[in-house]
Amino acid sequence: MTLTGSVDQVEPTSAKAVQKSVDALKLEEFVGRFASDLGAVLHAATVLIGDQLGLYRAMADGRWVRPEELAEATGTHQRYVSEWLAAQAASGYAVYDAETSRFRLTPEQAFALTSEGNFLSVLGGLQLAAATIADIDLIVNAFRTGFGVGWGEHDPDLVEGTLRFFRSTYATNLVQGWIPALDGMEAKLRGGARVADLGCGCGATTILMARAYPESSFIGFDYHAGSIARARQDAATAGVEDRCCFEVATGKDFPGRDYDLVTMFDALHDVGDPTGVAAHVLDALAPRGIWMIVEPFAHDRLEDNLNVIGRIFYSGSTTICLPLSRSQEVDAGLGAQAGEARLRQVVTAGGFRNFRGVAETAFNLVFEARP
Fold first, then answer.
1. 184-232: pLDDT as tens digits
2. Dihedral Cα 65, 71, 72, 78, nearest 10 deg
3. Contact, 127 vs 117, CB < 8 A?
4. Which CATH number fits domain 7-114: 3.60.10.10, 3.30.70.1400, 2.60.40.1120, 1.10.10.10?
5. How far apart are CA 104 and CA 340, in angstroms?
6. Mean pLDDT calculated for residue range 85-107
């Protein structure tokens, strides 16, 4: 990219200072990054449009299609569809054939954009991200006042986007890899165990476990009543309501004792008092019980997280996780990039003596805590 302007175009009073301090090549590099980001943000809206209107699903078979054919198949207007397809091709979300003026999805694009069961829900992630933009006024006010923002205060798309985005990761890893990595827990679940799922949200993880281990009983807890209502509906739809129930409660006051397994998925960093949660979990566990903690992938040092994954999680933490923690008592504000050392400190401060990492993915760290 070539800059169309120059430092000579700034106000005369500051032009000389700018010329001395700005490296033109580095500035051009930054503008290139900005242009890429601007395109990504604007493109995100077109992805959500394609999701809602079924445009991607209509292209899932990978066949070449003209704008008028896609419009007819989806009950949409040809001119809008034509512009939308051009945006997809320019962003690498579709392929364009100039000779025939047709578009298609590659198998990889179709998998990522139309399969809710894939390991990374592109659509859910962008729905989640769009909700943070809708919430900018809330977060700006939080910056100015220092107050927090509760989960229920956010745009409703945050709940739905979070469910879609994280559910795909859990469906790929939870039963297949994470639970088998826990010492002896898979056998216990197959034989019949008592499980509490803290911060369960809409119950995706609770339902996944209930379907995989029909001999065990599961109860999901979350402080957001709207998410609990959705979880109950989804459990009934999945046919597991006989062994999977949900209640409104926090990590510090959820009822019950002698749980064989307590789970917490991408939620410990969101609570105001994670050490208090750890102490309550310890009290609720059976003598040989396990607390499984799944957290966003992070290294211990900030400088080691300055990468693509860190960019996602630090940005999400600024607008979602930190405000959520600050809306609760104690306000520990761990943030989504706490890292293993900080998490170990929190868990052991709550009374646990054994803490170890058992698995990891590009997006998650999985820990086992024992009394």
1. 999 999 999 999 999 999 999 999 999 999 999 999 999 999 999 999 9
2. -110
3. no
4. 1.10.10.10
5. 43
6. 98
